[in-house]
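Recall from the previous lesson that a structure prediction takes nothing but the amino acid sequence as input. Here we apply that procedure to Nucleotidyltransferase domain-containing protein from Acidovorax lacteus. The sequence below is the only information supplied.
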Amino acid sequence: MPASAADEIAHAAARLIVEEGLEWGPAKRRALRDLGLPARTALPDNDTVEAAVREYIGLFCADTQPAELRALRELALVWMERMQAFRPHLAGAVWHGTATRRSDIHIQLFCDDPKSAEIALIDHHVDYEPRTVTGFHGESVEALSLSSLSRPLQEMIGVHLMVYDLDDLRGALRPDTQGRTPRGDLAAVRRLLEEPAP
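The prediction returns the following tokens.
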């Protein structure tokens, strides 16, 4: 695929991710359709899309995005503290720093007993919706999805708690293709929030 087609899809997907809060896979597929490219056109990889997202944020959201990201990280920390017993790790755009107010929060839980996280939500009278999603190894995992108010943003934010087996934690902190830790625990998220704003 010519580089220009990959870049075109990545930039169109970046706009959908930032402006509409689409997940990366659906954003790439919709960008392909919106651009009228053949359905069999190869899609750009996530690193290319992430670079386009960072570029888009830098051009169009530089004045608002840092505060929105901080609000999302603060809300993520609240839920990680509530679910502390299940070894929570923050992942996705809120962890990597590309989130805006349209982004959902993705927290991965590593449980001895997969049902225990769900029981904890029931015990705390939290309304949630169980779903099956694709996990970080490509396997099916249960996600407990809920909405939570971000006071600084004055908006309800989607929070997705993905339930993994405790054994999955072993490979979960291997660096990604860019050499970064792909997810962070409570201490790591607290450190992010202690950093001065850019």
